[in-house]
Design goal:
This protein is α/β, with parallel strands linked by helices. Helix content is about 45%, strand content about 15%. It has 2 domains: about 5-185, 3-Layer(aba) Sandwich (Rossmann fold); about 190-275, N-(1-d-carboxylethyl)-l-norvaline Dehydrogenase, domain 2, CATH 1.10.1040. It has helices at about 15-25, 35-55, 65-70, 95-110, 125-130, 160-175, 190-205, 210-220, 230-235, 240-250, 260-270, and strands at about 5-10, 30, 70-75, 85-90, 115, 135-140, 150-155, 180-185.
Amino acid sequence: MILGTVGVLGAGNIGVGVVTDLVLHGISAVVVDLTTDILERAQAEILNNIRFAPVLSKTLPRASRDEALQRITLTTDLQDLTSCDFIIENVTEDWGIKKPLYERLGELAPPEVCFGANTSCISITQIGNASGRPANVIGVHFMNPVHLKPAVEVIRGFHTSDLALSRLLQLLSQLNKEAILVEDMPGFVSNRISHLFMNEAAFVLQDHVSTAEKIDMIFKKCFGHAMGPLETADLIGLDTVVHSLDVLFESYKDPKYRCCPLLRKMVHAGHLGRKTGRGFYTYFAG
C-alpha cells in the first residue's frame, strides 16, 4: 500500500521537519495544530527548508514552492485527519496533553489507520492503551533535521501489530529512510543515552568547569560528533529536554536522570534554545 496522504499532529520543530520530508518525497500532508498563527509560521519554515534542501543535500528530491503548497493542508480541526492513510503525532512531551489527544484520535480515525507516536521518552505501550487501539500504535522517533537524517528509531509497543509495523516501514521506504527497530522502554535507545550527555553537560556548565563553547568543542573535535551536547539541547528545545528528563526520572526512579537545575532555570526564563533565539547560545538579537 503506497501512502499518499499523512496526517501530522503538531507543527513544532520536529513536525516542520516531518512535513518537509513528506512534501519533498511527493506525499501530501494534513498538518494540525492549535492556531492558524502556529500553522502559518510552520508553513513558512517548511517552504524555507524546501528552498534550501538542494544546497544541503544532493540526494533529496526537489519540489517547487507551488508543488509544496499543493501538498500541504493546514487545519486546526482533528476531524480533517480522517482522510489520511497514516498519522504521525509530534505534540509536546507531556502526558497530560498526549493522553486526551490519543483518546480523541482513537474515536475519530478510521479503524484501519495506524498512528506513529513521535515521542521522545513516553512508553509506546502506554500511548497505545490511551488510543483504545494499541495494535495500531507504533513509535517513530525522527531526529532533527528530519529531512537530512537517513535513519529513524522505530519502537514496537507491547501490542503493536505487524500491520502497524508494515505501514510505517512502507512510509519510511517512501522517504528513503532506514528503520532501526527497538523494543519499548521509556526513552528507548537514543534518549536514554543522549539525555544523559545533555544533562551532565549542563551540570558541567553549572559547576563552572568549562564554557558551553569548550564543552561542545571537546565532543566535536575529540570525539568527532557533528554537534556538542549543549548545541544539541538548543536544537531540540530545552523545554523538551526537561520534559523528557522528567519522564525518564519518573519512569526509572534513577537519580542519574535528575534534571540539572540550570536547565530548568533556563526553561523558566524562556530561554529554550534555537526556537526562542537564546539557550546555551544566542541565535538572533531580541
